[in-house]
Design a protein that fits this description.
Order of helices and strands: HHHHHHEEEEHEHHEEH
Distance between the termini: 55 Å
Number of helices: 10
Number of strands: 7
Strand order of the largest sheet: 5-7-6
Radius of gyration: 23 Å
Helix content: 40-55%
Oligomer: single chain
């Protein structure tokens, strides 16, 4: 019986793979994302664009800007090195610059996912994606609390569509897993608030603009079947039911 386990997630796999199907898909997605981020990182390193936050933080002082950002160039070189390491581990004899290397890696993904240390290289590439993303992000993001870091317990935050984040403790966070764990915890949790208090809680924690009147409407229409009235205008709400209604309401708006 084959007892091989995926090097990245620990699921059972068959020879000759070292990564399971789900992690192989994650490997492909990480390479695609890294290609986009590396292009942006090169543009930033060459001074082709700056972030709005940098312009606010570093007002003009009468001196011409440095043509090349050495720190960002180092990030490019470090990431290129880890890509080359992954290729060497897979037995490839060709080594190239990142913009030619990543497409070749994507076209030879099956070989990469059978490499002796594929799990380690997938982790390093995902870490690079999480590290570079905030450095090149041109669009200001609102990051909200999505759960807790499994390693240190700190609050984990992420913007919509952001798959990977690095906690302050250095742990690489899979935001999908963090959100799913938070969802499981929420399903068994209740919250005691007035309708106005619940409206404020939804806005501050999840960014949903739900009025006090709308909350009362849900109660009266039976949209929150687990809700129990308490003295003083307070109710005990099921957080799972509240978030389900808030999400559906926001999509209609």
């Amino acid at each position: 019986m084959d007892n091989r386990l995926c090097q990245h997630c620990g699921n059972r796999i068959e020879r000759p793979w070292t990564l399971c199907p789900a992690c192989r898909r994650d490997y492909a997605a990480a390479l695609r994302r890294l290609m986009t981020l590396m292009r942006l990182l090169r543009q930033r390193a060459e001074g082709r664009y700056t972030l709005a936050s940098e312009r606010r933080r570093h007002p003009g002082d009468g001196h011409a800007p440095t043509p090349v950002n050495e720190h960002l160039c180092d990030m490019l070189d470090e990431t290129e090195d880890l890509l080359q390491d992954a290729c060497v581990d897979a037995g490839f004899t060709w080594l190239d610059r990142w913009h030619r290397l990543i497409p070749r890696m994507a076209s030879h993904l099956a070989v990469l996912c059978r490499a002796p240390h594929a799990g380690d290289h997938l982790h390093r590439i995902q870490h690079a994606v999480a590290r570079i993303g905030p450095v090149v992000d041109r669009v200001p993001r609102t990051r909200r609390i999505i759960g807790a870091c499994p390693a240190c317990g700190r609050e984990a935050t992420a913007a919509r569509g952001e798959r990977w984040r690095i906690c302050k403790c250095g742990t690489l966070l899979d935001t999908d897993e963090i959100r799913e764990e938070a969802r499981r915890r929420v399903e068994a949790t209740h919250l005691t608030r007035t309708p106005a208090g619940l409206s404020e809680w939804l806005r501050e924690n999840y960014g949903y603009e739900i009025s006090r009147k709308q909350v009362r409407h849900w109660i009266e229409r039976g949209k929150l079947p687990s809700t129990k009235a308490i003295d003083g205008g307070y109710y005990e709400f099921s957080i799972r039911e509240v978030l389900s209604n808030a999400m559906a309401f926001s999509k209609r708006e």
